[in-house]
Amino acid sequence: MGKRRRAAVPAVEELISPVNSLDDGCLMHIFSFLSPIPDRYNTALVCHRWRFLACHPRLWLRVERPIRDVMEPGVYPNLEAAVSAARPGDTILIAAGGTHVACNIQIKKPICIIGGGELPDDTVLTCSRGSDNALEFLSTCKIANLTIRAELGCCLLHRSGRLTIQECLLQCEQNPLDYLSFPIISTAIEYNSFPSLKEQGHGVTVVRTRIEGGAKAVRTNGTLALQRVRAIYSRSSVFFWFEVGEK
């Protein structure tokens, strides 16, 4: 019998995925189109190079307390500092563990704020008594995977733009003044006489979010109204889907 020929071993270059032949700038641009959680987060687990690019400050800012390295770019000690430094379109990732203070933080640019834990309960923003709200939105924004607690007042104040709340937990702590507490307050007004503004629109979209405490889930002081409410009851929680839009 003739000797068996050994299968040719492909060269190292042939084993490398074509995507790895792209330079860092091109690869980072591709990562920017991925949703921060879970897609961009998962890319950081592939290799050291992808982790460096997926966690680059150009793609998102990080809030960590305490900061290990004050000179590390894109890392901030609190959410207010990160919001101030963010550019339109940026994503802010808040580290899981501990409690982050959020009191009357105004957000006037379109950004995304995401909790870094596996569950919303892992990343908690607390609004202390004496503050009107934790976060105030004056632009189109998205928040996801966060727990936001308010001792008095509201968790989220929506003034303009389109706000998306996805897989969060909004809590108004029980107190004798519960009738003054609301998880969400919207004061947005639709300008029907200006078509260009109407096309942009204002509204709130809530997706798979738990709401606890307060006088009622949403209070509207503007021209928007609660619409398309859906709730799913589990053993320990109630998850809500609804929209606040033009009447």
Automatic annotation (TrEMBL):
InterPro entries referenced in this protein's UniProt entry, alphabetically: F-box-like_dom_sf, F-box_dom, Pectin_lyase_fold/virulence, SHCBP1-like
Source lineage: Eukaryota, Viridiplantae, Streptophyta, Embryophyta, Tracheophyta
Organism: Panicum hallii
Signal peptide: none
Designated name of the protein: F-box domain-containing protein
Superkingdom field: Eukaryota
F-box domain location: 27-63
